[in-house]
Amino acid sequence: MSTPASGATTNSAAPSAGKPHRMPVKRQLTVVTLVVVMTLLPAIVMLVVTRVGTGTAQGAATWASIPAIVGIAAAMSGIRRYAIIVAILMGFLAPLAIVAGLSPVSGAALMAILCMTVGRLSRVGLEKSGLLVPVMLSWALIDPPAWDGATTVDRLDNGYLLWMALIFLVGGLIPALLVPLLLRKRPAPARATHTQSEAVTYTVMITTLVTVSTFYVLDHPEMIGGAFLIAVILVMAPIGTAHTLKPTIFRALGTVGGSVFVILLVSKVDSLGLIYIIGLVFLIVALFARLSGLAWIYYVLMVPATACLNSTTLTQVGELGKQRVVDNVVGGILVIIAAAIAIGYSQWASHRGEASDADHEVEAATHAVA
To answer: Do 355 and 199 meet the contact criterion of CB atoms below 8 Å apart?
Structure first.
């Protein structure tokens, strides 16, 4: 937690300075296998359910993997109740996001509310899992999946909205319930909390950038990959005055490089099934790299992984890759500028003296989940 005097964020579980944390290989295999299985299992379950319910296995059922990622991250925070609540919220928010995407105003308003919630969660160190909620819902908000072979999406169709709510609910609940059981012997990870000053600065930054970006993307329907821009902002936005611009710049360069790689990849492959396999391989390697402390490989490979796994046509893979290049450049520049302003403000505020950091709600929540 940041101290009033220095504003630096500390974490008792943090590795030694200058030495990236490297998880043992056996544990890496366990974690990666768990993540992959928990990501694919909800999609398989919902493919079966939609086949039984509609007579056809719906492609939209594979979107159950999207809330599954949120459920995995929430469960691995070590708080089972929090993971279940997040999973249930994903089920309720999915149809709301789909309908809100009809208007740039309503869509931007929804994302603003979610970003402010993420900012609040940063006080108790849950922002890393919490930010995945707006990141993953942005796909449903901007470019929801078609249903039953349709070429367009009727965002107000009650049957469609009920199915999408079920897909997101089941997708989040399966890992939220199973991951804590599989990791019951694993000690709860330490969470790095943040001061009120850091949380407010962070909240204002992500809310402003994401709200404006969402409005712009929804106002330009041709940006089918606009969710990437929102993801870039939320993932790259730093919190705490201990952060510098250097990691943010490296993240932006890595994801831009990954986007270029997607474009080159699609020009050499003519099978959508092979594209999915390549995307899954990239995802596994990216997870291994992240757990091994090789963050730059993670940022490079996650781009082609998400572009491949979120596409339904070869053309869409290439188009997402091209849009991702632009999204990363724009998002990276916005975050770098915002981070520079935030760091400057924090340093200015530290010279004027810190305001009271007392927050009884946060203290109560911290004790409740301890």
So the answer is: no
